Amino acid sequence: MSIKTWSVFAFVRSSFIFMNGCIEPQSAFSKIPPGIWRGVLYLRETPKVVKDKDEITYKTDYTGELPFNFEVIYDNDSIFHIEIINGEERIKVTDITFGKTKAMIKDTVTFGFPVYDTYLTASYEERVLEGFWHVNYREGYKIRFKAVHGDNARFKLPQGEVEADFTGRWALDIDPETKDQFPGIAHLKQAGNKITGTIETETGDFRYLAGDVVGKKAYLSVFDGAHAYLFELKLMEDESISGLYYSGKTYLVPLVGKRDENAKLKDGFSMSKAKTGAPVSFVGTNTEGKTFSINDPANEDKIKLLLLMGTWCPNCKDATQFLKDYLKEENPQDVAIASIAFERYRDSSKLNTVLKTYKERMEVPWDVMLGGYYDKKEASQTFGIIDSIKAFPTLLFLDQKNQVRYVYTGFYGPATEEYQRFNTEFKSKIATLRDGK
Description:
Layout: E1 35-42, E2 65-74, E3 80-86, E4 89-93, E5 96-100, E6 107-113, E7 118-125, E8 128-135, E9 142-149, E10 168-174, E11 182-191, E12 194-201, E13 204-205, E14 209-214, E15 217-223, E16 228-235, E17 241-247, E18 251-259, E19 283-285, E20 291-293, E21 303-309, H1 314-330, E22 335-343, H2 348-362, E23 367-373, H3 376-383, E24 394-398, E25 404-409, H4 418-434
């Protein structure tokens, strides 16, 4: 049946109830059915064969499927948007095109994430979407995607009892016993067979994770247009956890962890510092082609906040939103903010478009300028004001005389317990600078 036949009806109510899968008739639709969908990103082109039933994976034949949920909501008879659901977070996506293309005889829908320079595109037929997630700034990078309408499950787990409670604070060792090892802290909450939480690292967090538990195994995932993270965990006999961490289609490493309510990571204010105690200078060109300088008369006698970021970086988006909220709530007349972007493109023709799109879509009220390429070693040499850039974002606090007084590496977003602590510390630093201390 053609989806352009207006007599076709949706069967999933947009205000569905996750727990019982309540299904009720709804009004006609003109494009794809409204209501809940279950999407899957297939992170492994070649499935991993599982021979041991006790392996971490819940599948009997393969692993590496990253599920996420989204809801299709019609704004009127012909226009709709989607909301991607990760735990308690809903991400509204409005950059959507629908129709036949020259390459595809079937109806095709594209969900754009312009802030991150990525998009999902898929053909539609019989309540199923099939296509790929594309990442523009990585040449040839795409991950197979499929979504089915009316399915409110997260992971498709076998029937079984819940034999473990993952609730708590876990000290993680990610990619252990390698030169790339790094620590993390998982904050998990479990209610029955449902599990949510996040993972903090010394450079940021993995935002809102959601998933399911069966037996002694837990599975969590997040997809938000930029992140594509999947975790497969198992509670071991000694009450430690062992698992796998997937990021996109190319990164897969093991992890281990143990409960530790006192687990801590390095303080973000201790990881980088100014190269000199003398006043510094920065001059750049903003998205309108105008020159910006921290020495401009408009910035005289003001505290300056320089946000080193990338448009491709979700933690940078969280940091940008934090600063926007600060300006809106506090309306400080003695604080000036600027963003300096380190991007994944070297092609200058693409860079200004990417920065303009970010500034416009994020409604950033301050100057956004190009700092250089995103490689942290190269960026550290290019920027030169601090000894090293260890993460994006990095926030520099400059006093009224343009001396770098504090450097904060990474950012913990609203999914974390650290978010409010940083908010308090941030305002304390600003107060100290105001007092001239």
